[in-house]
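notes to self, project folder thing:

trying the whole complex as one job this time. last attempt i did each chain seperately and stitching them together was a nightmare. four parts in total, labels are on each line so i dont mix them up again. if this works i'll redo the older ones the same way
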Amino acid sequence: MNKTEIIEKIEQGKIKMYEIENYFDKTESVEIRRIYIERQTGKKFDSIGSFTFDPNNVYGKNCENVIGGATLPIGIAGPLKVISDNANGEYYVPIATTEGALVASINRGAKTVSLSGGVNVISEYVGITRAPVFQVANIKEAKKFKIWFAKNYDLVKKIGEATDQYLDVIGYKIYTFGKNVWIRFNFDTKDAMGMNMAVVATQQMCDYIESKYKNIRTIAVSGNMCTDKKPALINSIEGRGRIIEAEAIIPNQILKKYLKTTADAIAEVNHIKTWMGSALAGSIGFNAHSANMVAGIFIATGQDPAHIVSTSMSYTNIESINNDLHINVKIPSLNVATVGGGTKLATQMECCDLMLTNTSSTLKEKRNINKTDKLAEITGACVLAGELSLHAAFASKNFVQAHQKYGRSTP
Amino acid sequence: MNKTEIIEKIEQGKIKMYEIENYFDKTESVEIRRIYIERQTGKKFDSIGSFTFDPNNVYGKNCENVIGGATLPIGIAGPLKVISDNANGEYYVPIATTEGALVASINRGAKTVSLSGGVNVISEYVGITRAPVFQVANIKEAKKFKIWFAKNYDLVKKIGEATDQYLDVIGYKIYTFGKNVWIRFNFDTKDAMGMNMAVVATQQMCDYIESKYKNIRTIAVSGNMCTDKKPALINSIEGRGRIIEAEAIIPNQILKKYLKTTADAIAEVNHIKTWMGSALAGSIGFNAHSANMVAGIFIATGQDPAHIVSTSMSYTNIESINNDLHINVKIPSLNVATVGGGTKLATQMECCDLMLTNTSSTLKEKRNINKTDKLAEITGACVLAGELSLHAAFASKNFVQAHQKYGRSTP
Amino acid sequence: MNKTEIIEKIEQGKIKMYEIENYFDKTESVEIRRIYIERQTGKKFDSIGSFTFDPNNVYGKNCENVIGGATLPIGIAGPLKVISDNANGEYYVPIATTEGALVASINRGAKTVSLSGGVNVISEYVGITRAPVFQVANIKEAKKFKIWFAKNYDLVKKIGEATDQYLDVIGYKIYTFGKNVWIRFNFDTKDAMGMNMAVVATQQMCDYIESKYKNIRTIAVSGNMCTDKKPALINSIEGRGRIIEAEAIIPNQILKKYLKTTADAIAEVNHIKTWMGSALAGSIGFNAHSANMVAGIFIATGQDPAHIVSTSMSYTNIESINNDLHINVKIPSLNVATVGGGTKLATQMECCDLMLTNTSSTLKEKRNINKTDKLAEITGACVLAGELSLHAAFASKNFVQAHQKYGRSTP
Amino acid sequence: MNKTEIIEKIEQGKIKMYEIENYFDKTESVEIRRIYIERQTGKKFDSIGSFTFDPNNVYGKNCENVIGGATLPIGIAGPLKVISDNANGEYYVPIATTEGALVASINRGAKTVSLSGGVNVISEYVGITRAPVFQVANIKEAKKFKIWFAKNYDLVKKIGEATDQYLDVIGYKIYTFGKNVWIRFNFDTKDAMGMNMAVVATQQMCDYIESKYKNIRTIAVSGNMCTDKKPALINSIEGRGRIIEAEAIIPNQILKKYLKTTADAIAEVNHIKTWMGSALAGSIGFNAHSANMVAGIFIATGQDPAHIVSTSMSYTNIESINNDLHINVKIPSLNVATVGGGTKLATQMECCDLMLTNTSSTLKEKRNINKTDKLAEITGACVLAGELSLHAAFASKNFVQAHQKYGRSTP
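result (full assembly):
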């Protein structure tokens, strides 16, 4: 069968789009599928057809029914000075974005914090979570099951861990309502984001529990107390993935020179806008635009962009102390990886590489660092830089001018 | 000055990275900047250097300090049958993603709903919002200002509208706390997402207010009651951008054949996982994974990915009525565009084009449709397809198998 | 039948407890029922038997199956200086409480603010709300119904208003999800809290809608978007009952003398505890203990104590400006009455009377004041006094000492 | 000094209201203070002057500046059949309320569930919490302090426990943001609600920490992550006080006979109103009116009424299984006591006694029960009865009629 033939067969409904891989290799399949879609729509998709990843790596791992690639511009912010357990140097941060002024704004923040001694960051790994929900007969049985589970946790854990050499079950917490029982498992999935591993391990554990405990059934391998890709306070309170704390102090003089405003003015914006305004709006994120920095880095480095959601539940606090500015950012749920998922695609791998490289001529990193922690820490520092810059822009009223200069395109 | 010379000057700190555009054209600037970063990091970024957009369109509009492009695979889900005011046909949905199994899952949902008569969608445009925060002397003055503002709204509105021919100020709501006053403006920004226009108009209105009303000052042109890119209930309750309602009915037989489960089983998962589980987790999104579909479409079609945050606050309800499945999705805050922002970049424009093309041989669209409404409506339908598929996967327990087959890559 | 006979008949299951009123007058019924319960439990309830209200007023209005009264101590805080549209003077606030130190603490706050010029208060009446939920066939029908309702609102309103001469329907807002439609009605119920009237009017409007609009049915006369007696952000954002703003400025010297601390110290506590701590806890109330003041006043004056819930969603902001303390309190949902409900019982009526009496020898109230607004305004001022006092106690670390002195009883 | 003289001295500002106890005994002080207030207001407060508690017990423990008592009617609901670890019998529940129809409604629910076999309840004691907030120099120091605290927890715990023989420190959880550190302590305070003890112990622990750890200071002995008397999701997720699960199954026939409706109809109301409506309203309580039952019991039995706030964050789920109704209630944060606080006042003690007495002639309680757990369990059962009744009233549309009959008083 040649390309034309298979396209005709798809059009006739004899073969399905996803079956192309049965007849052609991955690279050709992408082309054939695109041609088919071009014929269906009567349009040409030449740009989509031009991409850098290898289809052989993508199929069965990152995407199905591939027709080509989506390309976003990458802007560079930095160098950004970061001091943490795994980073110690100056880093360039790749931001994949189509929002004008964003990179310029982050860059301004990066410069300001770097000149002020850099951003101190601490990351704590609490692990990715998955919370299956089970059902037993009634509340008494739910209580009994909790006791049984506590006793049998080690066995269940072993079942979960047997599914993957890179996965450890590192804890759990049980919640009940009526006859329904949620077990929120925490997993250490090393340098992978781990949601896939976690789901496989969880299903095995669910099956095991069903086989060992009478009269229990799994309602869903995810019962939404995980909570994955929805804005949920359980993640803010318990943490999920990594908890990030980032901190910087900007001296009065640097503030004036580079951000054209004062610590008092910025702290006032932070109090009224970021704390009071967010509270009045019923927001569960108390920041200016942390989602922007996270989205830019996540798309560039191959992270799951749906995790922007939980990361947007971050907190930014700014104080003026003796006219210097003290800024803190907390991200209670940051999910990143340096292996697996999108991280191994062509541009994504290069962006990870770019971001993780210390370009300082003087600062040296420790020997045995964890590169995923490092990525998380630099991300946290970058969020802080962006938060600082936007808060300052509001305070100095040049926010609009920035948008007028960079962000505007005539519709 | 040649390329090598300018790179050296940057390395010597004599020229800044963003100043390259002063000496070279946009396309060359991207290359020079990338080479500079390669020298700084000692790495090669060939894939980043291969991209499809025209740097001349990007600089000053979508991104600064560009070094190249980030490319994600695009998978196709569909055809998806959508019936709404602006769509009436079968559409292919481009999903830019690196999460294995996602496109396959959406595709399964799309097939199921399309065979069942398609997804009915209603979109309501409430406009993008921006809420500056002002400060007056005290609560009495805040009350007075509210009265003044109501009287002068028409004048303020004119000032805002004068900033852009495509922008209308279509409403406002005032909130106060103490001496602080937030005015949440709603804007009609036509086919643009409109945040940029809105910010420019808002600043002009702020300036006008300050010039006309004694003793008021703008604290910030955005006071976080907008609420942009943070998960805030004000957007769920008041709506922001577009409010989407999507609906489908899946007959018993189709359910059994394509989703391998029953309406009762799926409805049970929906009630326990999506409503109860979300509530117990303190979630303000009651869905399974709407962020996934939205992220895939947003990145493919050039929307602002940070807006995934508010879109994730959606609701999915599933009922079993006479063994048929009734599914509803509500997205109270969907922000999309077909002009401006990332929508005019090469692959993004093609994806918009792709998604908006009716491929049905029998169904015809109306004549005068709004293509941005249409994009929003197809997005809503796609979210429903994805929600159906994942709920069904949980119910039929094949969720894990799907991940094992498609989603797995060895770290 | 004499008392003994009826008690025996109840014990034999021949007569039900609530049927006693069929044979005896209200006062005797209370006694008989108490004796019956005493026999059932083998205990004596003499204190419960001693009460001040007239059972004839209570039965069929405030309580059923009455056996007597519950008595709480009333402490007096004040005089509290309040300046508002309806209050202008010094007021004593009755606090019914069993929490030691509370009255002393409020009193301290009252003294401090009164010496500083009093509390400025503004109340805005937005009306009590009730949101029935209806169901139609699908989302299209829901949209049609919204249009129909907008056209027929005036007629529906008339139906509602016909149920009670004291009730006006003053507005509504429609929310939909799928085929379900919530209409959130706002009612002006004059000096009554109005929930009862509102429910009666709403049912009539529901019946009318069902009779006029084909294929609609009422799911529940309250669809929880009201939201009554649950902590819901819709009330914070839209307001419910009365929205209160209260404000005071405490000079440096008074602060030092009466609260033993500084404006800076209190503002720091406010920022870290009340804003940051609340946000991190996932709280939707940003205050120290507003529920305490509200509970004390509500129980004393005959308000519905379940409304403490929504009132606890209040905001307290404290700033230090030139070493003076500026404090603001916002309560977005305060539900109070001066007629109906518990307000006409003996001690409650006296407490209303007490609280509404201006005891200042110099300050004069306006002529035509609304006494329910006035009650709300004094309540708001009292919340501010209590918030100030507790924040100051934390700042000056004498919080614990206060509890040790007043709050302690040996278990 | 006689009564008239002291009143004159108060009027002259020579003696303060709270100083009356220095000259007269407690009982006389109450009278003098009331007379003083009567003279100030020109009103008579005879009903307030008639009360049942002994002023000697109140002063310095429950209330300051006492002028008398507030009396509310107590209605009886029951007998309510409760089966739990600490209850096993039929109980009458005293409801102090002024809301007509409430007791009748709860009573109807109580009858229905009791005829159906009663309410199964499980209570779990997680302890009252108090979360002081500290400040150190920066995020690094915060991390160090966490490690130090973990090592020194046993010592700190001892300091806390030394403050009261009835108090145990049973756990803690640390949260940080920037340089601020919250330690959320859990306390076992036996049969007392324990907030007072907890605050005293916490202050001692704070002082100890300050004395042992260099460069730390207490910002506030309560940092709002406790969270006390504000509606905060941390309490729903972590639990506070007691976590209650209550459950009942109502057979089809009983439902029809006593509640005039069907399981399907009630389950539909529950799904649309209680789950969907609450979610759309941004509510963090998913119930119909649990605050009503809790308020009634709390005021009657001397609990802290401000704790109604957290208790209102409860969940009610109702399903129809084979036409029988299955109802579950979860209250994640119920704070009750049987010693201390208001529980030892005259009517309150009688109400505790009343509520805790098993009136069943056949069911026997276990020997060694915990009466505070028992009170919590009966409260949980009563909430379930009230939830059932109101849900059923909506379903059967007789909600309004009930209000018209009982709840109405002419303004």
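what i see at first glance: The radius of gyration of chain B is 24 Å.
need to look closer tmrw
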